[in-house]
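Tokens for chain A. Residues wanted.
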């Protein structure tokens, strides 16, 4: 089929040339001299020489203080008794751990990202029961769910580790093939990059030390779509429910009507797209939520934040959660079909009021605009159809031309300082980026940008965004060698 298309194309070209209206000569259409675009190297501008006094460090906003209070609750070690046999350990680390007690032993769901936190959780669990652990279940392969597993295996060496088959491949990608990149990205997301150049936080970060590959425990029992087992009279049904990750699963106890949903729900608008990592399966996410709703759970126990109790309440929360994700996905697809750019779509897609005002859909952890960008990233290609992007020049090339046309780096950075005083920190960063692209060694540009990034971080109102801004601030301060 492809060969036929090529032949047709060649004949069309020949016909076009030979039958061109007016008998235009072939030489007027075809050049036999090779001509290629000129690409030159432009010189870097001189480093800036302006005098600059950084503004006073930003103060925490009241909204941020309220979030810090919420974060304090999230990071206060707590063992919640959901039923006589179900316990939730949260606040010991970023990820939570669940324990189900049966007559023949224990089932543990997830293990946090920290050996230290897992040891503390197990110690608390052992105050409740001394039964052996029979199963450890990974809801998915993210580091905050699998890296404390060795603690539970050490306690009960004969336990089985259950996950989806996709989880094994997911873990290989994150912890082996892309180990260095993922470690760097996760540290950046947590605000832990270049820590020696960061201001001290009012509270310790909830993200704990990342383990090495030696600490990883790989699944020993895997499945495709569904896996069931019975232990001590309790039936466990595991379903492959993609969403947060392609390998995600949920655990359903039908008799108890308890649903362990991993990261398919937590009390925030979901993180449908993590800016530095691969796109997530958004459509499958709301389909998985619809599956959860159909089970009519009485208890919903997530991998982060507190459990929800009561069939009506659980159904209402999950229904609205699914509706919010579906709305963002479908509106973004509509924008793609209408030919809107990703930036145009970001301005277009907003949650409707009936959803955006719900406390568990506030953009504390995930963001709608990031979700739109992630959906675009997962569906459309990198070319926008406008020509320039097919073979783009390096950013340094165009940046040097802009700096030259502006009259030098000092002109641009003087304007950036003015904008910084008026609080236009996003634009400040954009201008500084032009100077930095033209001359990466311009310490003043790094310094000005660092101050604006810090303001953006302290006023953003989103945990992930604060972490990204904190890391970016520290890296810019490192580039200009400014320690707090």
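Reply:
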């Amino acid at each position: 089929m492809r060969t036929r298309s090529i032949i047709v194309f060649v004949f069309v070209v020949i016909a076009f040339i030979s039958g061109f209206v007016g008998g235009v000569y072939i030489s007027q259409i075809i050049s036999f001299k090779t001509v290629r675009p000129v690409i030159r190297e432009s010189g870097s501008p001189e480093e800036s020489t302006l005098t600059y006094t950084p503004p006073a460090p930003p103060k925490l906003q009241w909204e941020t203080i309220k979030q810090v209070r919420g974060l304090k609750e999230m990071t206060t070690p707590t063992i919640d008794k959901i039923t006589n046999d179900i316990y939730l350990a949260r606040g010991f680390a970023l990820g939570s751990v669940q324990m189900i007690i049966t007559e023949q032993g224990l089932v543990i769901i997830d293990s946090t990202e920290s050996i230290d936190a897992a040891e503390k959780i197990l110690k608390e669990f052992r105050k409740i029961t001394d039964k052996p652990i029979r199963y450890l279940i990974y809801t998915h392969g993210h580091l905050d769910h699998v890296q404390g597993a060795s603690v539970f295996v050490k306690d009960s060496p004969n336990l089985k580790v259950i996950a989806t088959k996709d989880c094994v491949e997911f873990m290989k990608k994150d912890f082996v093939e892309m180990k260095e990149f993922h470690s760097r990205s996760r540290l950046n997301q947590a605000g832990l990059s270049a820590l020696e150049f960061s201001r001290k936080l009012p509270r310790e970060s909830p993200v704990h030390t990342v383990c090495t590959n030696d600490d990883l425990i790989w699944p020993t029992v895997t499945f495709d779509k569904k896996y069931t087992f019975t232990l001590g009279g309790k039936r466990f049904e595991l379903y492959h429910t993609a969403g947060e990750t392609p390998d995600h699963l949920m655990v359903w106890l039908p008799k108890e009507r308890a649903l362990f949903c991993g990261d398919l729900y937590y009390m925030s608008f979901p993180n449908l797209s993590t800016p530095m990592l691969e796109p997530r399966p958004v459509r499958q996410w709301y389909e998985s939520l619809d599956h959860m709703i159909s089970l009519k759970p009485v208890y919903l126990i997530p991998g982060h934040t507190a459990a929800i109790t009561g069939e009506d309440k659980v159904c209402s929360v999950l229904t609205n959660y699914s509706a919010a994700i579906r709305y963002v996905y479908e509106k973004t697809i509509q924008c793609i079909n209408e030919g809107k750019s990703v930036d145009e779509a970001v301005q277009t897609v907003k949650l409707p009021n009936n959803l955006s005002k719900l406390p568990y859909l506030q953009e504390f952890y995930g963001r709608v605009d990031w979700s739109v960008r992630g959906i675009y990233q997962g569906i459309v290609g990198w070319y926008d159809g406008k020509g320039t992007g097919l073979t783009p020049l390096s950013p340094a090339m165009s940046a040097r031309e802009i700096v030259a046309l502006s009259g030098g780096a000092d002109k641009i950075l003087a304007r950036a300082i003015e904008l910084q005083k008026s609080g236009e920190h996003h634009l400040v960063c954009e201008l500084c980026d032009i100077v930095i692209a033209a001359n990466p060694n311009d310490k003043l540009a790094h310094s000005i940008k660092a101050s604006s990034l810090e303001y953006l971080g302290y006023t953003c109102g989103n945990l992930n965004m604060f972490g990204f801004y904190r890391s970016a601030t520290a890296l810019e301060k490192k580039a200009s060698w400014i320690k707090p």
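The chain has two domains: 71-330, 395-480. The domain at 395-480 is CATH 1.25.40.880 (Serine Threonine Protein Phosphatase 5, Tetratricopeptide repeat).
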